[in-house]
Amino acid sequence: MFNTVYHEDCKNFMSRIEPGSIDLVFTSPPYADLRDYTKISPDNYVEWFMPYAHLIYRVLRENGVFALNIRNHVVDKARHTYVYELVHLLHKQAGFHLIEDMIWDKVKVLPNPKGRRPMDVYEFVFVFGKGKDVTWNVDPVRTQYSLRTEQRYNSDVKIRWNSIREDRGNRKLELHPLGAFPKNIVRIPSESNRTGHPAPFPVPLAEWFVKAYSNPGDVVYDPFGGGGTTALAAQKHGRKWMLTEIHEEYVQLANKALVDAPEALF
C-alpha cells in the first residue's frame, strides 16, 4: 500500500482507504485554465475542487495537515478571486482550520518588461489542519542567520526589563545553534520544465513542508501526484508515501524519478 504510485482518480482512492490514515497531504492541483491536460475555468474551480477537499478531510488524522500549493489567475485584466473563495469554503464547508498562509517566493522568473502588471514571482501554500493542534517541527526548517544578524548578536545589547524591578544591564544575545526561526515566506527557486511534467514544483519546496508538518515514519499523500515530487521529498526524509495520478505518462515519469533517486529508503 505504501510507497506506491497509484494510476487512478484520487477521489476513488480516497473513498476506499481507511479514514484518518494520512498524516500530511501536500499537493499542487491543476491550476485554473492554465494546463492543456486539465482545463478548469476559474469560475468553476471552487465547485470542481470541493469534493476533493471533503475527501482529504476524511483521510487525514486528527492532527493531520493539508498543505495546498496554488496560485490565482488573471482574467480580463483583473485577478480572479477563486483562490480566496476556495480558502473560505475549505474552512466553512470542509471543516479545515487555516493554520498558516505561506508565500513561496520562486526567486527567478522570466523578465517581462512590457507587461501591464508586476511580474508573478510567488505562489501560495495554504496550511490547513483537521484540528488546530497540528504537527509542527521548527528545527528542521530553520535557516542560516544573515551576517548582519550574527554581527548584531555578537555585540553587547542593552536590555531594559519593563517590570517593577526595572532590571537593566548589558548582555549578549545567543543565536540558536540550528539557525534562525523560519518565516512564512519560503525562498526556493522554481523548477525547469525539463523535468518532463508541464507544471513541476521543486523537491525542496515539498521537503520544507514534509519536514515541518510531519514526523519520520508518518504517511504523506499527494492526490495529484504529477512527476512524483512529493514522494521524492517524503522518501528522502524517512516518511511513508502514496501518490495518485490519472495520467499514465506522469505515473511512468514519477516511477522513473523514484527509481533514479539516490534516497530510495524503502
What layout of secondary structure does this protein have?
Elements: E1 4-6, H1 10-16, E2 22-27, H2 45-59, E3 60-70, E4 74-75, E5 78-79, H3 82-92, E6 97-105, E7 122-129, H4 147-153, E8 157-160, E9 168-171, E10 185-187, H5 203-213, E11 219-222, H6 229-236, E12 240-244, H7 248-260
Parallel strand pairs: 1-12, 2-3, 2-11, 6-10, 11-12
Antiparallel strand pairs: 3-7, 4-5, 6-7, 8-9
Helix pairs in contact: 1-2, 2-3, 5-6
Question: Could you characterize the architecture of this molecule?
Answer:
With 266 residues, this protein is α/β, with parallel strands linked by helices. Helices cover 27% and strands 23% of the residues. The protein is built from seven helices and twelve strands. It has helices at residues 10-16, 45-59, 82-92, 147-153, 203-213, 229-236, 248-260, and strands at 4-6, 22-27, 60-70, 74-75, 78-79, 97-105, 122-129, 157-160, 168-171, 185-187, 219-222, 240-244. The strands form three sheets. An eight-stranded mixed sheet has the order 1-12-11-2-3-7-6-10. Strands 4-5 form a two-stranded antiparallel sheet. A hairpin with a 7-residue loop joins strand 8 and strand 9. Helix 2 runs parallel beside helix 3 and helix 5 (203-213) crosses helix 6 (229-236). The longest helix has 15 residues, at 45-59. It is globular, with a radius of gyration of 21 Å. 33% of the residues are buried. The model has no long low-confidence stretch (mean pLDDT 87).
